[in-house]
Write a structure and sequence with these properties.
By secondary structure, the chain is an alpha+beta fold. It has 14 helices and 15 strands. The protein folds into three domains: about 10-110; about 125-270, no CATH class; about 295-340 and about 380-475, no CATH class. The chain has helices at about 50-60, 130-135, 205-225, 280-285, 290-295, 295-310, 315-335, 345-355, 365-375, 380-395, 405-420, 430-455, 460-465, 470-475; strands spanning about 10-20, 30-35, 40-45, 70-75, 80-90, 100-105, 105-110, 125-130, 140-145, 150-155, 160-165, 170-180, 190-200, 230-245, 245-255. The strands form two sheets. The protein has a six-stranded antiparallel barrel with strand order 1-2-3-6-5-4. A two-stranded antiparallel ribbon has the order 9-10. The radius of gyration is 28 Å and the shape is globular. InterPro entries: ApeA_NTD, HEPN_Apea. This is ApeA N-terminal domain-containing protein. It comes from Aminobacter aganoensis.
Length: about 475
């Protein structure tokens, strides 16, 4: 192949014929287009079914095709499946040829499928995300310059498949592909791409593979301190015949709108190295991937907020900070189990407090007090922050200078002001730049807490933290980084 196959963030157009699976002989010519913002759109030169059926569906009749499955074949013979397809336009030309447009958020090229959940036919999948080579420490190109001969030699080495981690239900490996192109416009181009592979114990569905790929991509994002979008998912399907009795596994490519924030950031600005690379993570704890999946449900609400604030480029600074603090609170609530007082004592305390409400108290006030007592055993934000900093101080053997008492008070006051807009707090809040760096400090706290939950010791994290230019400064000093 001259170039890598299209990924989730690429745009392309395919000509072909299409049909509904229940009417495989009713083929209609059409043009399939895909782009990452709008998903897949199928423009048919004609309509599915008889003209009378089209009239019936259009003018208030049957709506069986509201979420249809459409199969097709490209001009080059590749199978196509559009799942959850919706008819968005149907036009009758009198005279002329009727036509219709279908849209779908889930496009599969390489197989005919009816469901992303029910067909367990894929024994392996491969996926990529932004900066995967950096996270996996892959450097496929090496160059040598001979000054006497004035020659530059470049060696491209295809990464071989290497075991990365093992889970009870599947194995994860890293692998690469090499593509060359000698078109006149470029003279000669070599692309070497890195992928991660998922091999379950038995074939699984498309959504099963997608779910695991996204979770691993999110693990890499967390270890990098920023969101790294999933850029491709390729599955190996059932064997297809090549002729002469030969077969090979089908190559199935997945396309969908997986836009996080405003989509993928195409700018290639200089980035810090990951806080912890993939090989380092596994070296520190070979069971880190297993622990990530085992605890994912507990992490999930906090991680959703975490990737919102690290993935969305356009967001008001105060909103980003509020979401970051919420993520930290949710994570601490779900993983620490801390309360202000022992649970049984709190039950007795609550009963006593409710009983102490004067009988003539207004119903609205009685209701409010009961609600306050119900959540009174939850630590406040200030208490949670103190607990987190104290636990990190114990683990790392030193107090993080970037999280002193003054900063914690400012953080609490800023959260309270932008939640309630109390006038007495307006002079005690962080300014815009301060809120930006406070958000990054909260991101750092969350990252360290999750790494600890993955079994990474503080002694292993400390040297990694020092090499990360931004986080090293945020950890050590309360000043704004330079």
């Amino acid at each position: 192949m001259a170039s890598p196959p299209n990924g989730i963030y690429d745009s392309f157009i395919e000509q072909g014929v299409f049909w509904l699976p229940e009417h495989p002989k009713d083929k209609v010519s059409g043009t399939l287009s895909y782009d990452p913002e709008n998903g897949a759109a199928l423009k048919l030169l004609g309509i599915f079914g008889e003209l009378s059926e089209g009239f019936k569906r259009t003018f208030g009749g049957s709506h069986d095709d509201e979420k249809a499955v459409i199969h097709g074949e490209t001009a080059k013979g590749k199978p196509i499946s559009l799942l959850h397809a919706i008819n968005t336009n149907r036009q009758f030309n009198m005279p002329g040829i009727p036509n219709e447009i279908w849209s779908s958020n889930l496009l599969v090229i390489g197989a005919h499928m009816m469901s992303a959940d029910d067909e367990a036919i894929f024994p392996k999948s491969y996926f990529r995300f932004d900066e995967i080579e950096s996270w996996l420490e892959h450097s496929p190109f090496t160059d040598t310059f001979d000054s006497k001969a004035n020659t530059l030699n470049v060696l491209a080495e295809k990464p071989r498949e290497i075991a990365f981690a093992s889970h009870a239900d599947f194995d994860v490996s890293s692998v690469g592909s090499l593509y060359s192109n000698n078109e006149p416009a470029t003279r000669f181009v070599i692309d070497v791409t890195t992928q991660m592979a998922i091999a379950p114990r038995e074939p699984q569905s498309l959504n099963w593979h997608l779910n695991r790929a996204i979770r691993l991509q999110e693990l890499a994002s967390l270890c990098s301190g920023r969101f790294l979008p999933l850029t491709s998912l390729e599955l190996r399907g059932p064997d297809v015949e090549l002729g002469g009795g030969l077969t090979r596994p089908a190559e199935v490519h997945f396309y969908a709108r997986l836009i996080h924030g405003e989509g993928r950031d195409e700018t290639k600005s200089k980035r810090d190295t990951p806080i912890v690379s993939g090989p380092e993570l596994i070296r520190f704890n070979p069971q880190a991937v297993q622990l990530w999946f085992d605890q994912f449900e507990a992490f999930s609400p906090a991680l959703g907020l975490f990737f919102t604030i690290t993935g969305a480029r356009k967001m008001f600074t105060n909103i980003r900070l509020l979401l970051a603090i919420q993520a930290l609170e949710v994570f601490h609530r779900r993983t620490s189990g801390e309360t202000v007082m022992a649970e049984q004592k709190f039950v007795d305390f609550t009963e006593a407090m409710v009983a102490a409400i004067p009988p003539d108290t207004e119903p609205d006030m009685r209701e409010k007090l009961k609600s306050l007592y119900r959540f009174a055993n939850e630590p406040s934000l200030k208490q949670r922050l103190r607990s987190i900093v104290a636990s990190l101080t114990d683990a790392f053997g030193e107090a993080p200078g970037g999280f002193d008492g003054k900063f914690l008070r400012k953080l609490v006051d800023t959260r309270n002001y932008y939640t309630h807009f109390s006038l007495d707090l307006s002079e005690r809040t962080l300014d815009g730049e301060g809120m930006y760096w406070a958000t990054r400090r909260v991101v750092l706290l969350l990252t360290l807490l999750v790494l600890q939950r993955l079994g990474i010791a503080a002694g292993d994290i400390k040297p990694l933290l020092r090499r990360h230019r931004e986080f090293a400064q945020l950890w050590a000093k309360a000043d704004r980084p330079r």
